[in-house]
Amino acid sequence: MTHSSISSDLSIDAVSVQIRDAFQGFTGVAERLEQAYATLREQVAVLNLELNDTNLRLTQSLHENTRIRRYLSNLLTSIEKGIVAVDAAGQITLWSGGAERLTGFTAAEALGGQADRLLGEDAAVLLHGLTGEGHDGHREGRIIRKDGYILEAEITASPIRDEGGKVLDTLLIFDDISKRKWMEERRRRSTAQAGLEEMAVTLAHGIRNPLASIELLATLLAEETQADARTSHLAQGIQAGVASVNTILTNLLAFTRPVKPCLKPLDLHRVIEEALSTALYALKERQIDLIRLHHSGPLEIDGDRELLKQVLLNLILNAVQAMPSGGTLRISTRGPEGESPVSVGGHTTADGQPTRCRPKHGGMNGGEFVEVKVSDSGCGISEANLEKIFLPFFTTKPKGAGLGLAIVERILERHGARVSLESRVGKGTTFRILFRSRCQAMASAQGGI
Does the N terminus or the C terminus of the chain have fewer Cβ atoms within 10 A? Predict the structure, then answer.
């Protein structure tokens, strides 16, 4: 064997070893890769399971959030009370369905607006009155609806806090208490009125018997003293006084009798014109200007023409007596579909003076009713007298019996109507009557409401 042949054999063996080692190394790497791939597949499978689980939980959470959001939205829409959120700048950030119904303003109109301008002075006082500690505030006040009607409201302001207790926004909740206020006032006045009526009946019957004797004696005296002019004149004076007292007693007893209206379809405009024609002479005598602002169509209600004519005539003559040196009488009407200018910022007049209003409207707001207003530019009524103005036998006139407005209110109650008044001393008085419209009354009778 030659030297070169031996070297070639050694070289082949070395290559074989290297190939075997390389193969073994490759096999080991392949096995490790295979193991790593299997591990990775297991991890991917686990991750897929976790991802699917997470996706499922996320989907469920989204569905739950959507359900809760819809539930809260339906809840806010269904709650009768108005719910409003106001941020630190006084802007409205939430306006519930109840707020829409109570004020007439839609969420689109309210959101972003200033709460004090939209909800009025009483809500503004509550908003500004919240202290740094954010204590709740509560008061009864007034909110001017979009259609101009006044809403007697109970308003509560509460702070909205974050998890740390920091005040973020303010929550205003308000509710219509017009009907409750009206009922309370009616109950109070009815109690007082019942006592006065009972006293009136007792007095009337107690006075009438001796008055009849005085009348008889005065008549006899007048007959026997015809020849004596002075004595006869005195006897006639007694007879006139007795007649005057008799008239007062007759009115008192008539007032205590129940009013039974005969309801028929009628147009209030025609009743107003009939009352005005009766009062025309008094208007001319006092040089009073008459302004009519009538609703364009008929003002149809079910009512007793003669009784309602008595109501309007009473109010017109009251206005005439409040303007002894002349002035302006304004009679305006509004139909159920009529609209008023939007009024915001509280119920004040142009010069900032508050207008006193009594009594409340008893929840008769909105477009379900027809309205008649009788306004004068006369002396007005003091706030102290407003509380008593509808009480029987209360009068500020030297010769008045104090029954006119009490009769007005009684007749209107029998018609299901409401009367209220606003007055400012030295500026005038406005009586406002709300009747249920005939269409609304028919819908109610048919179960439409």
Answer: N
Amino acid at 172: L
Q: Alpha-carbon distance 426 to 404, whole Å?
A: 22
Bridge partners, 141 (sequence order): 153
Assess whether pLDDT exceeds 80 at residue 11.
Answer: no
Three-state SS string over the chain comes to: CCHHHHHHHHHHHHHHHHHHHHHHHHHHHHHHHHHHHHHHHHHHHHHHHHHHHHHHHHHHHHHHHHHHHHHHHHHHHHCCCEEEEECCCCEEEEECHHHHHHHCCCHHHHCCCEHHHHHCHHHHHHHHHCCCCCCCEEEEEEEECCCCCEEEEEEEEEEEECCCCCEEEEEEEEEECHHHHHHHHHHHHHHHHHHHHHHHHHHHHHHHHHHHHHHHHHHHHHHHCCCCHHHHHHHHHHHHHHHHHHHHHHHHHHHHCCCCCCCEEEEHHHHHHHHHHHHHHHHHHCCEEEEEECCCCCCEEEECHHHHHHHHHHHHHHHHHCCCCCEEEEEEEECCCCCCCCCCCCCECCCCCECEEECCCCCCCCCCEEEEEEEECCCCCCHHHHCCCCCCCCCCCCCCCCCHHHHHHHHHHHCCCEEEEEEECCCEEEEEEEEECHHHHHHHHCCCC
| CA separation for the pair 445, 147 (Å, rounded) | 26
Q: Taking 70 as the threshold, does the pLDDT of residue 395 lie above it?
A: yes
Predicted confidence (pLDDT) per residue in 141-159, tens digit: 888 888 777 788 999 998 8
Sheet hosting strand 428-436, strand order edge to edge: 288-293, 327-334, 369-376, 428-436, 418-424, 356-358
**pLDDT, tens digit (0-9, with 9 covering 90-100), for 186-233:** 787 777 777 777 777 787 878 888 888 888 888 888 888 887 888 888
* Burial of 300 from C-beta contacts in 10 A (0-12 / 13-18 / 19+): buried
Give the integer Cα–Cα distance in Å for 299 and 334: 8
pLDDT at 344: 31
Give 190's contacts (C-beta < 8 A, 6+ positions apart): none
Q: What is the mean pLDDT of the chain?
A: 82
The structure's pTM equals 0.55
CA distances (Å), origin 192, targets 61, 179, 250, 408, 410: 63, 20, 21, 17, 14
Lookup result for tokens 């109950």: 187
- For residue 400, give every residue at least 6 positions away whose Cβ sits within 8 Å of its Cβ, in sequence order, or none: none
